[in-house]
Amino acid sequence: HGARAGFPRTLGQAEALDRICELDLVISLNIPFETLKDRLSASWVHPASGRVYNMDFNPPHVQGVDDLTGEPLVQREDDKPEAVAARLRKYKDAAKPVMELYKSRGILHSFSGTETNKIWPYVYTLLSNKIPPILSDEEK
């Protein structure tokens, strides 16, 4: 669950980060609300074992039941679509001043899309232009 959102997510976190390092590049991925809601709501759990299924990436063989026991799967409260929507709205409100801060410093780069493999080439190009290539000993 922890890896879902980026860092820093709040102005307080951004200020704490400023104290330990100087950022020269911040990447923001703009993914449509509905896409995020669908993806985050795709998690279902087998309560007895804790096995987690994702309807997009590793669905159960039979919809709604655990592969090993055949018992019903449930959705965690915070993975239900309504809860996910509320979490996303809260995140957006908290992240807005963070975005403004980095935009004002001229270090914010935003990318929009719904699929990682389509967004990644643009992110890779940006990073390649920012980071000097590492030369091997033979090339130096």
Fold and architecture overview:
The protein is α+β, with helices and mostly antiparallel strands and about 140 residues long. Helices cover about 40% and strands about 15% of the residues. The chain has four helices and four strands. The protein has helices at about 10-20, 35-40, 80-105, 115-130; strands spanning about 25-30, 45, 50-55, 110. Strands 1-4 form a two-stranded parallel ribbon. Strands 2-3 form a two-stranded antiparallel ribbon. β2 and β3 form a beta hairpin. The radius of gyration is 20 Å and the shape is extended. This is KAD4 kinase.
N-to-C order of helices and strands: HEHEEHEH
Give the strand order of the largest sheet, numbering strands 1, 2, ... along the chain: 1-4
Report how far apart the termini are.
43 Å
The residue ranges in which pLDDT falls below 50 over 5 or more consecutive positions are none
Beta-strand content: 5-15%
Range of helix content = 40-55%
| Overall strand count | 4
Largest sheet: 2 strands, parallel
How large, in whole angstroms, is the Cα Rg? 20 Å
- What value does the average pLDDT take? 90
| Structure annotation, total helices | 4
What structural class do the secondary elements suggest? Answer: alpha+beta
Overall geometry: extended
